[in-house]
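Everyone, describe these C-alpha coordinates:
***
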Amino acid sequence: MSLSQHAARGLKWQAIELLLRQLISLGIFATLSRLLAPEDFGLFALVNLYLGFVAILGAQGLRTAIIQRRSLESEHLDSTFWYSAVVAGIVFLLTWILAPWIAAVLGDGRLAVYLRVASIIPVINALSNLHNSLFTRALDFRRPAIRTIVANLAGGIAGVLLALNDYGPWALIWQQIIAAFAGGIFLWRASAYRPQFRFSWRHLNDLRAVGGAMFTTSFLWFFASRIDHYLLGRFSGPATLGIYTLAGRLPELAKLITQQPLSQVSTPALSRLQDDPNELKRSVYGAMELVAFLTCPIFVGLAAVSNDAIPLIFGVQWAAAAPACALLAISALVSTLMVFVHPTLLARGANRDYVVLNAGQAICASAFCFLGVKHGAAGVALAMLATNIVSAAPALALLKKWAGISPGRYLLPCLRPMLSSVFMYFALQQVSSSFADSWSSIFSLAVKIAIGGSLYLGLSYVLQRSTVIKTIHFLQKAVR
Protein backbone atom coordinates (compact mmCIF):
# COMPACT_ATOMS: atom_id res chain seq x y z
CA MET A 1 0.00 0.00 0.00
CA SER A 2 1.39 3.43 -0.98
CA LEU A 3 1.97 6.27 1.46
CA SER A 4 -0.95 8.24 0.03
CA GLN A 5 -3.23 5.23 0.51
CA HIS A 6 -2.02 4.86 4.10
CA ALA A 7 -2.71 8.53 4.67
CA ALA A 8 -6.14 8.35 3.07
CA ARG A 9 -7.15 5.34 5.14
CA GLY A 10 -5.70 6.93 8.23
CA LEU A 11 -7.76 10.03 7.58
CA LYS A 12 -10.83 7.85 7.07
CA TRP A 13 -10.57 6.34 10.53
CA GLN A 14 -9.64 9.67 12.02
CA ALA A 15 -12.71 11.18 10.38
CA ILE A 16 -14.96 8.36 11.63
CA GLU A 17 -13.59 8.72 15.14
CA LEU A 18 -13.85 12.48 15.20
CA LEU A 19 -17.32 12.61 13.68
CA LEU A 20 -18.76 10.15 16.17
CA ARG A 21 -16.71 11.50 19.06
CA GLN A 22 -17.68 15.09 18.39
CA LEU A 23 -21.35 14.24 17.93
CA ILE A 24 -21.28 12.44 21.27
CA SER A 25 -19.16 15.15 22.87
CA LEU A 26 -21.26 17.99 21.52
CA GLY A 27 -24.50 16.36 22.66
CA ILE A 28 -23.11 15.77 26.14
CA PHE A 29 -21.56 19.22 26.41
CA ALA A 30 -24.77 20.88 25.24
CA THR A 31 -26.66 18.95 27.91
CA LEU A 32 -24.16 19.88 30.60
CA SER A 33 -24.25 23.55 29.57
CA ARG A 34 -27.94 23.61 30.46
CA LEU A 35 -27.34 21.91 33.82
CA LEU A 36 -24.21 23.67 35.06
CA ALA A 37 -23.28 27.30 35.67
CA PRO A 38 -20.46 29.24 33.94
CA GLU A 39 -18.51 29.15 37.19
CA ASP A 40 -18.61 25.34 37.20
CA PHE A 41 -17.05 25.26 33.73
CA GLY A 42 -14.50 27.87 34.79
CA LEU A 43 -13.39 25.89 37.84
CA PHE A 44 -13.05 22.76 35.75
CA ALA A 45 -11.09 24.67 33.11
CA LEU A 46 -8.54 25.61 35.78
CA VAL A 47 -8.31 21.99 36.94
CA ASN A 48 -7.88 20.93 33.30
CA LEU A 49 -5.15 23.52 32.91
CA TYR A 50 -3.16 21.81 35.64
CA LEU A 51 -3.87 18.34 34.26
CA GLY A 52 -2.61 19.38 30.84
CA PHE A 53 0.60 20.67 32.38
CA VAL A 54 1.35 17.49 34.34
CA ALA A 55 0.49 15.37 31.29
CA ILE A 56 3.35 17.05 29.44
CA LEU A 57 5.67 16.42 32.39
CA GLY A 58 4.76 12.75 32.32
CA ALA A 59 5.04 12.29 28.55
CA GLN A 60 8.33 14.25 28.14
CA GLY A 61 8.13 13.83 24.38
CA LEU A 62 8.47 10.06 24.59
CA ARG A 63 5.29 9.37 22.65
CA THR A 64 6.58 11.35 19.66
CA ALA A 65 9.92 9.58 19.92
CA ILE A 66 8.16 6.18 19.85
CA ILE A 67 6.27 7.19 16.70
CA GLN A 68 9.26 8.71 14.90
CA ARG A 69 12.07 6.26 15.75
CA ARG A 70 12.88 3.96 12.83
CA SER A 71 13.65 0.86 14.89
CA LEU A 72 12.34 -0.09 18.33
CA GLU A 73 13.44 -2.81 20.70
CA SER A 74 11.27 -4.29 23.43
CA GLU A 75 13.47 -2.57 26.02
CA HIS A 76 12.52 0.82 24.54
CA LEU A 77 8.86 0.05 25.13
CA ASP A 78 9.18 -1.41 28.62
CA SER A 79 11.45 1.37 29.82
CA THR A 80 9.06 4.00 28.50
CA PHE A 81 6.07 2.33 30.12
CA TRP A 82 7.57 2.04 33.61
CA TYR A 83 9.19 5.46 33.50
CA SER A 84 5.89 7.12 32.55
CA ALA A 85 3.99 5.17 35.21
CA VAL A 86 6.45 6.12 37.97
CA VAL A 87 6.48 9.80 36.97
CA ALA A 88 2.68 9.86 36.94
CA GLY A 89 2.61 8.26 40.40
CA ILE A 90 5.02 10.86 41.78
CA VAL A 91 2.91 13.66 40.29
CA PHE A 92 -0.18 12.13 41.90
CA LEU A 93 1.45 12.14 45.36
CA LEU A 94 2.86 15.65 44.98
CA THR A 95 -0.54 16.96 43.88
CA TRP A 96 -2.18 15.63 47.03
CA ILE A 97 0.48 17.29 49.17
CA LEU A 98 0.72 20.60 47.29
CA ALA A 99 -2.94 20.98 46.24
CA PRO A 100 -3.62 24.09 48.41
CA TRP A 101 -0.56 25.86 47.02
CA ILE A 102 -1.41 24.89 43.42
CA ALA A 103 -4.96 26.17 43.94
CA ALA A 104 -3.59 29.49 45.21
CA VAL A 105 -1.38 29.82 42.11
CA LEU A 106 -4.41 29.15 39.91
CA GLY A 107 -6.32 31.83 41.79
CA ASP A 108 -9.08 29.94 43.65
CA GLY A 109 -8.67 28.03 46.93
CA ARG A 110 -11.72 25.87 46.16
CA LEU A 111 -9.68 24.01 43.56
CA ALA A 112 -7.61 22.02 46.07
CA VAL A 113 -10.11 19.20 46.60
CA TYR A 114 -10.85 18.97 42.86
CA LEU A 115 -7.14 18.80 42.03
CA ARG A 116 -6.52 15.94 44.42
CA VAL A 117 -9.20 13.74 42.93
CA ALA A 118 -8.51 14.69 39.31
CA SER A 119 -4.80 13.90 39.67
CA ILE A 120 -5.62 10.21 39.19
CA ILE A 121 -6.29 10.94 35.49
CA PRO A 122 -2.59 11.29 34.49
CA VAL A 123 -1.89 7.97 36.25
CA ILE A 124 -4.61 6.18 34.28
CA ASN A 125 -3.43 7.73 31.02
CA ALA A 126 0.21 6.83 31.71
CA LEU A 127 -0.74 3.16 31.75
CA SER A 128 -2.24 3.24 28.25
CA ASN A 129 -0.53 6.06 26.31
CA LEU A 130 2.20 3.74 25.01
CA HIS A 131 -0.36 1.36 23.54
CA ASN A 132 -1.96 4.28 21.72
CA SER A 133 1.44 5.42 20.40
CA LEU A 134 2.15 1.98 18.97
CA PHE A 135 -1.09 2.05 17.00
CA THR A 136 -0.25 5.50 15.65
CA ARG A 137 3.27 4.38 14.71
CA ALA A 138 1.77 1.56 12.67
CA LEU A 139 -0.68 3.98 11.00
CA ASP A 140 -3.46 1.94 12.59
CA PHE A 141 -6.07 4.52 13.57
CA ARG A 142 -9.08 2.23 13.76
CA ARG A 143 -8.65 0.92 17.29
CA PRO A 144 -7.65 4.27 18.83
CA ALA A 145 -10.75 5.69 17.11
CA ILE A 146 -13.00 3.11 18.73
CA ARG A 147 -11.25 3.66 22.06
CA THR A 148 -11.96 7.39 21.98
CA ILE A 149 -15.62 6.86 21.15
CA VAL A 150 -16.05 4.33 23.96
CA ALA A 151 -14.26 6.59 26.44
CA ASN A 152 -16.25 9.70 25.56
CA LEU A 153 -19.54 7.87 25.69
CA ALA A 154 -18.83 6.29 29.09
CA GLY A 155 -17.51 9.53 30.57
CA GLY A 156 -20.32 11.60 29.09
CA ILE A 157 -23.07 9.43 30.54
CA ALA A 158 -21.43 9.64 33.99
CA GLY A 159 -21.06 13.41 33.72
CA VAL A 160 -24.68 14.01 32.75
CA LEU A 161 -25.98 11.78 35.55
CA LEU A 162 -23.91 13.65 38.13
CA ALA A 163 -24.93 17.04 36.73
CA LEU A 164 -28.58 16.05 36.99
CA ASN A 165 -27.97 15.43 40.69
CA ASP A 166 -26.40 18.88 41.23
CA TYR A 167 -22.77 17.82 41.59
CA GLY A 168 -21.48 20.96 39.86
CA PRO A 169 -17.79 20.78 38.85
CA TRP A 170 -17.61 17.20 40.13
CA ALA A 171 -19.73 16.16 37.14
CA LEU A 172 -17.03 17.40 34.76
CA ILE A 173 -14.16 15.93 36.77
CA TRP A 174 -15.70 12.46 37.07
CA GLN A 175 -16.61 12.59 33.41
CA GLN A 176 -12.89 12.80 32.62
CA ILE A 177 -11.93 10.10 35.14
CA ILE A 178 -14.46 7.59 33.79
CA ALA A 179 -13.47 8.41 30.20
CA ALA A 180 -9.77 7.84 30.93
CA PHE A 181 -10.50 4.55 32.71
CA ALA A 182 -12.79 3.21 29.96
CA GLY A 183 -10.35 4.23 27.22
CA GLY A 184 -7.42 2.63 29.02
CA ILE A 185 -9.22 -0.68 29.41
CA PHE A 186 -10.09 -0.74 25.72
CA LEU A 187 -6.51 -0.04 24.62
CA TRP A 188 -5.14 -2.82 26.80
CA ARG A 189 -7.63 -5.28 25.39
CA ALA A 190 -6.97 -4.18 21.79
CA SER A 191 -3.17 -4.13 21.97
CA ALA A 192 -0.84 -7.12 21.90
CA TYR A 193 1.81 -5.25 23.88
CA ARG A 194 2.24 -6.23 27.54
CA PRO A 195 5.00 -4.60 29.59
CA GLN A 196 7.71 -6.77 31.10
CA PHE A 197 9.37 -6.04 34.45
CA ARG A 198 12.57 -4.61 33.05
CA PHE A 199 14.09 -1.17 32.68
CA SER A 200 17.06 0.21 30.77
CA TRP A 201 18.31 3.76 31.13
CA ARG A 202 20.25 3.35 27.89
CA HIS A 203 17.13 2.53 25.89
CA LEU A 204 15.15 5.26 27.62
CA ASN A 205 17.86 7.81 26.83
CA ASP A 206 17.74 6.75 23.17
CA LEU A 207 14.16 8.00 23.12
CA ARG A 208 14.77 11.00 25.33
CA ALA A 209 17.41 12.24 22.91
CA VAL A 210 14.54 12.87 20.50
CA GLY A 211 11.83 13.39 23.09
CA GLY A 212 13.76 16.00 25.06
CA ALA A 213 13.35 18.63 22.38
CA MET A 214 9.75 17.60 21.90
CA PHE A 215 9.13 17.96 25.64
CA THR A 216 10.38 21.54 25.56
CA THR A 217 8.31 22.21 22.46
CA SER A 218 5.19 20.68 24.02
CA PHE A 219 5.67 22.71 27.18
CA LEU A 220 6.04 25.97 25.26
CA TRP A 221 3.09 25.13 23.02
CA PHE A 222 0.98 24.35 26.09
CA PHE A 223 1.98 27.63 27.69
CA ALA A 224 1.15 29.60 24.54
CA SER A 225 -2.21 27.88 24.04
CA ARG A 226 -3.34 27.97 27.69
CA ILE A 227 -2.08 31.30 28.99
CA ASP A 228 -5.46 32.72 27.96
CA HIS A 229 -7.27 30.39 30.38
CA TYR A 230 -4.90 31.15 33.22
CA LEU A 231 -5.10 34.94 32.89
CA LEU A 232 -8.88 34.96 32.54
CA GLY A 233 -9.33 32.68 35.54
CA ARG A 234 -6.82 34.63 37.60
CA PHE A 235 -7.95 38.18 36.83
CA SER A 236 -11.56 37.89 35.63
CA GLY A 237 -12.77 34.92 37.69
CA PRO A 238 -14.10 31.42 36.94
CA ALA A 239 -17.43 32.70 35.57
CA THR A 240 -15.76 34.71 32.78
CA LEU A 241 -13.42 31.81 32.11
CA GLY A 242 -16.48 29.56 31.87
CA ILE A 243 -17.95 31.81 29.15
CA TYR A 244 -14.62 31.82 27.30
CA THR A 245 -14.33 28.05 27.60
CA LEU A 246 -17.77 27.55 26.09
CA ALA A 247 -17.01 30.14 23.38
CA GLY A 248 -14.07 28.02 22.31
CA ARG A 249 -16.02 24.78 22.26
CA LEU A 250 -17.32 24.95 18.68
CA PRO A 251 -14.05 26.27 17.20
CA GLU A 252 -12.19 23.56 19.10
CA LEU A 253 -14.52 20.89 17.77
CA ALA A 254 -14.03 22.17 14.24
CA LYS A 255 -10.27 22.26 14.77
CA LEU A 256 -10.22 18.71 16.07
CA ILE A 257 -12.23 17.48 13.11
CA THR A 258 -9.88 19.14 10.63
CA GLN A 259 -6.44 19.60 12.16
CA GLN A 260 -6.10 16.56 14.41
CA PRO A 261 -6.54 13.89 11.70
CA LEU A 262 -4.11 15.71 9.44
CA SER A 263 -1.57 16.16 12.21
CA GLN A 264 -1.73 12.58 13.48
CA VAL A 265 -1.55 11.07 10.00
CA SER A 266 1.09 13.47 8.65
CA THR A 267 3.57 13.02 11.53
CA PRO A 268 4.33 9.34 10.83
CA ALA A 269 3.75 9.76 7.08
CA LEU A 270 6.16 12.69 6.63
CA SER A 271 8.69 11.03 8.93
CA ARG A 272 8.97 8.31 6.29
CA LEU A 273 9.97 10.99 3.77
CA GLN A 274 12.66 12.62 5.92
CA ASP A 275 15.39 11.39 3.53
CA ASP A 276 13.55 12.51 0.39
CA PRO A 277 13.10 16.31 0.65
CA ASN A 278 11.70 16.70 -2.86
CA GLU A 279 8.92 14.20 -2.23
CA LEU A 280 8.28 15.79 1.16
CA LYS A 281 7.79 19.19 -0.50
CA ARG A 282 5.45 17.76 -3.11
CA SER A 283 3.43 16.02 -0.41
CA VAL A 284 3.04 19.20 1.64
CA TYR A 285 2.10 21.35 -1.37
CA GLY A 286 -0.47 18.84 -2.50
CA ALA A 287 -1.94 18.41 0.97
CA MET A 288 -2.29 22.18 1.50
CA GLU A 289 -4.62 22.39 -1.49
CA LEU A 290 -6.98 19.93 0.21
CA VAL A 291 -6.60 21.47 3.66
CA ALA A 292 -7.39 25.00 2.54
CA PHE A 293 -10.37 23.91 0.45
CA LEU A 294 -11.96 22.00 3.33
CA THR A 295 -11.11 24.18 6.32
CA CYS A 296 -11.67 27.77 5.18
CA PRO A 297 -15.47 27.45 4.81
CA ILE A 298 -15.80 25.55 8.09
CA PHE A 299 -14.16 28.19 10.29
CA VAL A 300 -15.33 31.28 8.41
CA GLY A 301 -18.83 29.81 8.28
CA LEU A 302 -18.74 29.18 12.03
CA ALA A 303 -17.75 32.80 12.63
CA ALA A 304 -20.67 33.90 10.47
CA VAL A 305 -23.31 31.87 12.34
CA SER A 306 -21.93 32.02 15.90
CA ASN A 307 -24.70 34.40 17.02
CA ASP A 308 -27.24 31.75 16.03
CA ALA A 309 -25.30 28.59 16.94
CA ILE A 310 -24.27 29.43 20.52
CA PRO A 311 -27.78 30.13 21.94
CA LEU A 312 -29.33 27.27 19.96
CA ILE A 313 -26.83 24.59 21.00
CA PHE A 314 -25.92 25.66 24.52
CA GLY A 315 -28.87 27.82 25.60
CA VAL A 316 -29.73 31.50 25.48
CA GLN A 317 -27.91 32.09 28.78
CA TRP A 318 -24.64 31.66 26.87
CA ALA A 319 -25.36 34.25 24.14
CA ALA A 320 -22.57 36.48 25.50
CA ALA A 321 -20.06 33.89 24.29
CA ALA A 322 -20.88 34.46 20.60
CA PRO A 323 -18.39 37.31 19.85
CA ALA A 324 -15.51 35.35 21.40
CA CYS A 325 -16.61 32.25 19.48
CA ALA A 326 -16.39 34.11 16.15
CA LEU A 327 -12.87 35.40 16.90
CA LEU A 328 -11.68 32.00 18.13
CA ALA A 329 -13.02 30.40 14.94
CA ILE A 330 -10.79 32.61 12.78
CA SER A 331 -7.88 32.02 15.17
CA ALA A 332 -8.40 28.25 14.80
CA LEU A 333 -8.38 28.64 11.00
CA VAL A 334 -4.96 30.33 11.07
CA SER A 335 -3.66 27.56 13.33
CA THR A 336 -5.09 24.82 11.12
CA LEU A 337 -3.49 26.25 7.98
CA MET A 338 -0.12 25.88 9.76
CA VAL A 339 -0.83 22.19 10.42
CA PHE A 340 2.16 20.89 8.43
CA VAL A 341 4.76 23.06 10.17
CA HIS A 342 5.25 20.73 13.12
CA PRO A 343 5.43 17.37 11.29
CA THR A 344 7.61 18.79 8.51
CA LEU A 345 10.16 20.34 10.87
CA LEU A 346 10.09 17.19 12.99
CA ALA A 347 10.77 15.05 9.92
CA ARG A 348 13.71 17.29 8.94
CA GLY A 349 15.23 17.27 12.45
CA ALA A 350 14.67 20.98 13.12
CA ASN A 351 13.89 20.44 16.78
CA ARG A 352 15.95 23.32 18.13
CA ASP A 353 14.48 25.92 15.78
CA TYR A 354 10.99 24.62 16.48
CA VAL A 355 11.60 25.15 20.20
CA VAL A 356 12.62 28.75 19.49
CA LEU A 357 9.49 29.21 17.37
CA ASN A 358 7.28 27.99 20.20
CA ALA A 359 9.11 30.16 22.71
CA GLY A 360 8.37 33.21 20.58
CA GLN A 361 4.72 32.20 20.29
CA ALA A 362 4.51 31.79 24.07
CA ILE A 363 5.93 35.29 24.59
CA CYS A 364 3.48 36.79 22.07
CA ALA A 365 0.53 35.00 23.65
CA SER A 366 1.48 36.22 27.12
CA ALA A 367 1.84 39.84 26.00
CA PHE A 368 -1.32 39.95 23.89
CA CYS A 369 -3.46 38.13 26.46
CA PHE A 370 -2.25 40.37 29.26
CA LEU A 371 -3.46 43.34 27.22
CA GLY A 372 -6.71 41.66 26.21
CA VAL A 373 -7.80 40.25 29.58
CA LYS A 374 -9.20 43.61 30.70
CA HIS A 375 -11.75 43.33 27.86
CA GLY A 376 -13.04 39.95 28.98
CA ALA A 377 -13.56 36.84 26.89
CA ALA A 378 -13.71 38.66 23.53
CA GLY A 379 -10.52 40.59 24.29
CA VAL A 380 -8.56 37.42 25.04
CA ALA A 381 -10.00 35.73 21.95
CA LEU A 382 -8.72 38.62 19.85
CA ALA A 383 -5.33 38.28 21.56
CA MET A 384 -5.09 34.60 20.57
CA LEU A 385 -5.99 35.48 16.97
CA ALA A 386 -3.22 38.10 16.92
CA THR A 387 -0.77 35.55 18.37
CA ASN A 388 -1.47 33.00 15.64
CA ILE A 389 -1.17 35.58 12.87
CA VAL A 390 2.13 36.98 14.16
CA SER A 391 3.55 33.47 14.70
CA ALA A 392 2.76 32.36 11.15
CA ALA A 393 5.57 34.40 9.56
CA PRO A 394 8.51 32.81 11.43
CA ALA A 395 6.87 29.37 11.05
CA LEU A 396 6.83 29.73 7.27
CA ALA A 397 10.42 31.00 7.34
CA LEU A 398 11.49 27.80 9.11
CA LEU A 399 9.72 25.69 6.49
CA LYS A 400 11.77 27.50 3.86
CA LYS A 401 15.01 27.03 5.80
CA TRP A 402 14.67 23.34 6.64
CA ALA A 403 12.54 21.86 3.89
CA GLY A 404 12.87 24.32 1.01
CA ILE A 405 9.13 24.94 1.12
CA SER A 406 8.29 28.32 -0.35
CA PRO A 407 5.99 30.42 1.89
CA GLY A 408 4.23 31.75 -1.21
CA ARG A 409 3.73 28.26 -2.64
CA TYR A 410 2.54 27.01 0.76
CA LEU A 411 -0.07 29.76 1.11
CA LEU A 412 -1.12 30.00 -2.55
CA PRO A 413 -3.72 27.20 -2.24
CA CYS A 414 -5.40 29.26 0.53
CA LEU A 415 -6.14 32.24 -1.70
CA ARG A 416 -9.16 31.02 -3.65
CA PRO A 417 -10.82 29.16 -0.75
CA MET A 418 -10.38 32.26 1.40
CA LEU A 419 -11.92 34.51 -1.25
CA SER A 420 -14.87 32.15 -1.58
CA SER A 421 -15.24 31.98 2.21
CA VAL A 422 -15.14 35.76 2.67
CA PHE A 423 -17.81 36.14 0.00
CA MET A 424 -19.86 33.52 1.84
CA TYR A 425 -19.39 35.37 5.15
CA PHE A 426 -20.69 38.72 3.89
CA ALA A 427 -23.52 37.03 2.04
CA LEU A 428 -24.62 35.37 5.28
CA GLN A 429 -24.49 38.71 7.07
CA GLN A 430 -26.91 40.08 4.49
CA VAL A 431 -29.11 37.04 4.92
CA SER A 432 -29.16 37.56 8.70
CA SER A 433 -30.36 41.12 8.37
CA SER A 434 -33.28 40.04 6.19
CA PHE A 435 -34.49 37.20 8.44
CA ALA A 436 -37.75 37.73 10.28
CA ASP A 437 -37.53 37.68 14.10
CA SER A 438 -40.43 35.25 14.19
CA TRP A 439 -38.42 32.52 12.45
CA SER A 440 -37.22 29.75 14.73
CA SER A 441 -33.51 29.75 15.55
CA ILE A 442 -32.98 26.21 14.27
CA PHE A 443 -34.66 27.06 10.96
CA SER A 444 -32.58 30.23 10.60
CA LEU A 445 -29.36 28.36 11.28
CA ALA A 446 -30.26 25.55 8.87
CA VAL A 447 -31.07 28.05 6.11
CA LYS A 448 -27.80 29.91 6.65
CA ILE A 449 -25.76 26.72 6.56
CA ALA A 450 -27.49 25.62 3.36
CA ILE A 451 -27.02 29.01 1.69
CA GLY A 452 -23.40 29.33 2.86
CA GLY A 453 -22.46 25.83 1.74
CA SER A 454 -24.10 26.29 -1.65
CA LEU A 455 -22.40 29.63 -2.24
CA TYR A 456 -18.99 28.28 -1.30
CA LEU A 457 -19.22 25.14 -3.41
CA GLY A 458 -20.62 27.02 -6.37
CA LEU A 459 -17.97 29.70 -6.30
CA SER A 460 -15.23 27.11 -5.69
CA TYR A 461 -16.34 25.12 -8.72
CA VAL A 462 -15.91 28.26 -10.80
CA LEU A 463 -12.58 29.37 -9.30
CA GLN A 464 -10.89 26.01 -8.60
CA ARG A 465 -12.68 23.21 -10.39
CA SER A 466 -9.58 20.98 -10.38
CA THR A 467 -9.34 21.19 -6.57
CA VAL A 468 -12.97 20.16 -6.18
CA ILE A 469 -12.35 17.14 -8.40
CA LYS A 470 -9.13 16.21 -6.53
CA THR A 471 -10.95 16.41 -3.22
CA ILE A 472 -13.70 14.10 -4.45
CA HIS A 473 -11.11 11.58 -5.67
CA PHE A 474 -9.21 11.73 -2.38
CA LEU A 475 -12.38 11.13 -0.37
CA GLN A 476 -13.27 8.21 -2.64
CA LYS A 477 -9.83 6.69 -1.97
CA ALA A 478 -10.31 7.16 1.76
CA VAL A 479 -13.57 5.22 1.95
CA ARG A 480 -12.38 2.21 -0.06
In short: The mean pLDDT is 83. Residues 304 and 429 are 7 Å apart (CA to CA).
